[in-house]
Amino acid sequence: MNKPSLKTALENGQFVLAPGIHDMITAVVSNKIGFDFVYASGYWMGASALGLPDAGIASYTQMLDRVATLCRVSNAGVIADADTGYGGLLNVHHTVRGYEEAGVVAVQIEDQEFPKKCGHTPFKRVVPAIDMIEKIKVATEARRNPETLIIARTDARQIEGFEGALKRGLAYGEAGADVVFLEALESEEEMREACRSVSRPMMANMADGGKTPIRSRAEMQDIGYSMAIFPAATGLAAAAAAEAVLNLLKHEGTSLSPDVPLFDFTEFNSLIGFDEVWDFERRWAREPKDEPR
After folding, report:
1. Which superfamily does 6-232 belong to?
2. What is the C-alpha separation between 93 and 73, in angstroms, rounded?
3. Where do the domains of the chain lie?
4. How far is Cα 136 from Cα 152, in angstroms, rounded to an integer?
5. What would the pLDDT profile of 56-95 be if each residue is shown by its tens digit?
6. What CA dihedral angle connects 235, 237, 240 and 241, to 10 degrees?
7. PANTHER family attached here (predicted)?
8. CA-to-CA separations, 223 to 9, 204, 212, 228, 234, in angstroms, rounded
9. pTM value surpassing 0.90
């Protein structure tokens, strides 16, 4: 399947809105709804697969496997969070190559020290800007497909202030990043100033519960963004739904309640691919009497 081109979408002025996809159930539901692009979040994919916090604990190999699976299942172009590149410059080189071979349309790397932290939690530290600039140059050189975009994220807002984060964003764009991402901005004023100042396409992180104010697609376009991710929405919604049905089971002893909606099982069978399995069985299954002796 040919995936949509993020490069072409941005060049054509299409605003890119990508929901976070934290597991493959969400991926097949997303296919039903229909998105051109989705986001593979390190936080949410690590939490769903391993039950671990986004603190540099999940390895490159574990995340590559998760990202490759999403690229296989999703009909959308996958924008992939690659944390810090999982190490130094050689690691960045191999990360870009690995993610590109997995089928992503964009690789996001950030300027935190290893082990990194979720951008909306405390105790983050950033590397010197020159170190990240070198990572960006290695990343852009490592890609084999010109359609693969490099997204450069800075987490400097809470360490060096807005001006420090903006200075880094400008430098990262000049170093060759295709998209610039100032993480965890704390007001709409900061968001507008960042978009006015940086000439590269800008990405917003609409992390529900995080430091950045949530804005709609239309509002983000007005602010000046070219794309936005909603990494937490499906994970938080799934956790809330699971909590509701588990409470129902614990206290009422049943899964049936008008207040706790369940996805239709028959439709889910179709989404996950059972129609093809059953077609195969109808074609190839033998009656017991036809079994070879």
Report:
1. Phosphoenolpyruvate-binding domains (3.20.20.60)
2. 25
3. 6-232, 239-285
4. 7
5. 888 999 999 999 999 999 999 999 999 999 999 999 999 9
6. -110
7. CARBOXYVINYL-CARBOXYPHOSPHONATE PHOSPHORYLMUTASE, CHLOROPLASTIC (PTHR42905:SF5), PHOSPHOENOLPYRUVATE CARBOXYLASE (PTHR42905)
8. 19, 10, 13, 12, 24
9. yes
